Each structure stands twice: as structure tokens, then as C-alpha cells.
């Protein structure tokens, strides 16, 4: 009996550790938020689709705030054409662009 309880405890502990794969992610069956970074924005559709697929739903990105500390929000919908105009989809970037500043050279004459 003790071994059975130990096995059940290990199964519950391991399955709980795998529940949240991405850091800074929260959601339920109606949608969720993903912590914004340039890298997560490039993969936001994959993250949202994987989450909504657990509930047999489709994802729709509804907001992207491109600042560290802000979030990418999404809804999980029964039908991808549901509320097309009431909940408009928002585009995301597919790659990160690094803005490099050119060095400023001042003439010495």
C-alpha cells in the first residue's frame, strides 16, 4: 500500500512539473497571456495553439504590447470564424530585429 501511494505521488508530482512548459505563461480554457519578449512573440502562435488544443479549441492572438513586462494575449475559440469582427486578430512578428546604432564620428578640425 505504501509503495502504491509513493507511485501515485510521483505521478502527480511529475505531471504537475510538465504542466507549464513556458515561463511567464498563464491561461485557461477561454484564453491566456504570454509574457512578451522578442523571442516569445516569434513563437506566440505555436504557444497559444498548443494551449488551446488541449481544450479542442482554436487560438486567436488578440493583443501584443511590445515592451518587457507586458503580455501577448490570446483567446481560445470553438470555431476560428467565431466573432471574427468582435475579437479581431492581431499580427505578430516572425523574427526579432535588432536595431544597431551607427557610431557617431566627429571630425577634429
Report on the structure:
- With 109 residues, this protein is of the alpha+beta class.
- The chain has a domain at 23-91.
- It is built from three helices and four strands; from the N terminus they run αββααββ.
- The chain has helices at residues 2-17, 38-42, 44-53, and strands spanning 25-28, 31-35, 58-64, 71-77.
- Strands 1-2-4-3 form a four-stranded antiparallel sheet, covered by helices on one side.
- Strand 1 (25-28) and strand 2 form a beta hairpin.
Summary, kept brief:
The chain has 109 residues and is α+β, with helices and mostly antiparallel strands. It has three helices and four strands, in the order αββααββ.
Features:
109 residues, alpha+beta, four-stranded antiparallel beta sheet, 3 helices, elongated
Q: Radius of gyration over alpha carbons?
A: 21 Å
Task: Give the rounded overall mean pLDDT.
Answer: 75
Side-by-side strand order of the widest sheet:
1-2-4-3
Give the proportion of residues in helices.
25-40%
Give the beta-strand count.
Answer: 4
β content, as a range? Answer: 15-25%
Number of helices: 3
* Major beta sheet summary: 4 strands, antiparallel
Low-confidence stretches: 12-21
| Helix/strand structural class | alpha+beta
Along the chain, the helix and strand elements come as HEEHHEE
Distance between the termini: 89 Å
Shape: elongated
Amino acid at each position: 500500500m505504501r509503495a502504491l501511494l509513493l507511485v501515485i505521488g510521483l505521478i502527480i508530482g511529475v505531471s504537475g512539473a510538465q504542466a507549464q512548459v513556458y515561463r511567464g505563461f498563464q491561461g485557461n480554457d477561454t484564453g491566456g497571456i504570454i509574457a512578451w519578449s522578442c523571442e516569445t512573440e516569434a513563437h506566440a502562435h505555436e504557444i497559444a495553439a498548443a494551449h488551446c488544443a488541449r481544450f479542442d479549441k482554436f487560438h486567436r492572438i488578440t493583443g501584443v504590447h511590445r515592451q518587457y513586462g507586458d503580455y501577448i494575449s490570446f483567446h481560445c475559440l470553438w470555431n476560428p470564424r467565431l466573432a471574427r469582427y468582435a475579437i479581431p486578430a492581431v499580427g505578430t512578428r516572425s523574427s526579432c530585429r535588432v536595431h544597431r546604432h551607427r557610431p557617431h564620428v566627429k571630425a577634429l578640425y
